[in-house]
Amino acid sequence: MLTRARELLGCHLVGHGATVMITEVEAYDGVNDPASHAFTRTPRSEIMYGPPMRLYVYRLHGHHCANVVTGPTESASAVLIRAGRIVDGVDTARERRLSARDDDALARGPGNLTQALGITIEDLGTDLRDPSPVTLRPAGAAIDAARILSGPRVGVRRAAEQPWRFWLADEPSVSAYRRHPRAGEANSSSSTSSSNS
DNA sequence: GTTTAGATCAACT
DNA sequence: GTTGATCTAAACG
Predict the structure, then answer these.
(1) Nearest amino-acid residue to B3, taking CA and C1'
(2) Model confidence over A132-148: pLDDT tens digits?
(3) Confidence bin at A196 (pLDDT 50/70/90)
(4) Nearest CA to A53 among A112, A134, A109, A108?
(5) Closest Cα to residue A57, out of A7, A13, A103, A94?
(6) Which residue blocks in chain A are alpha helix, DSSP H?
(7) H helices present in A63-190, as ranges
(8) pLDDT at A78
(9) In this complex, which residue's CA is closest to the C1' atom of nucleotide B10?
(10) Phi/psi class of residue A75: alpha, beta or left (left: φ > 0; alpha: ψ in -120 to 50)?
(11) Interval A70-129: pLDDT, tens
(12) Which of A70, A150, A153, A165 shows its CA 20 to 30 Å from the CA of A175?
């Protein structure tokens, strides 16, 4: 599972006229991962239980995040594409990401990456192997294992201690680690029904 | 029960 | 100012 995530580093993700080289990913281990949307099997997460090499897109803060279903079919494993470096279609990416000041920030962060590639909820379930607006291509050159770093995932509350984030050293497009404010807290559902004073 | 839309807020640039 | 596998609430089946 973690190997799949590492293998995605350096691959080219083509989306609606723009191409990025993946530089940062996070692995999500489906049924065994509380942070995964597939932790509970629902019709919505069914896509991740399906065949690999498909796209799972979900909405977050009004933006979108893109995942690659990696399989095997029953484990619902998926890899979140967190960041990438634009290698083609820079003009298109810039038009979509007007707020980005530097080219390195065009696809820095999952929401920005999907926006730069024009990936929306309509691309959900796209087969990345078929010729489609969104395609995943193998890495042009093998990535040196020494360049791959790992660490805890960004912004997750559940299972925040799992070092399932991988990124390429020497890449300015990789975002910095940010811990979730409430990560590790006890799940105290007991609402302290704080009546107004 | 699940899904979608909007709010929230700390860390980043 | 921007971003975001969070959080809550409302709509749906």
Answers:
(1) A44
(2) 899 999 887 778 889 99
(3) very low
(4) A134
(5) A13
(6) 2-8, 46-49, 90-96, 110-117
(7) 90-96, 110-117
(8) 96
(9) A181
(10) alpha
(11) 988 889 999 999 999 999 999 999 999 999 989 999 999 999 999 999 999 999 999 999
(12) A70
Chain B bases closer than 7 A to any CB of the protein: 2-13
The answer to whether some atom of strand C lies closer than 7 Å to the beta carbon of A56 is yes
What is the rounded distance in angstroms from the CA atom of residue A10 to the CA atom of residue A110? Answer: 16
Closest CA to A145 of A9, A12, A4, A1: A9
Question: How many Cβ atoms are within 10 Å of A134's Cβ, its own excluded?
Answer: 22
From the Cβ of A102, is strand B under 7 Å away?
A: yes
Which CA-bearing residue is nearest the C1' of B2?
A42
Of A105, A111, A106, A109, give the one whose Cα is nearest residue A95. A106
Identify the bridge partners of residue A86 per DSSP, sorted by sequence position: A20
Residue A187 carries which DSSP code?
A: -
Q: Which domains can be identified in chain A, with CATH numbers? A: 2-168 (3.10.300.10)
Question: A13 pLDDT band (50/70/90 cuts)?
Answer: very high
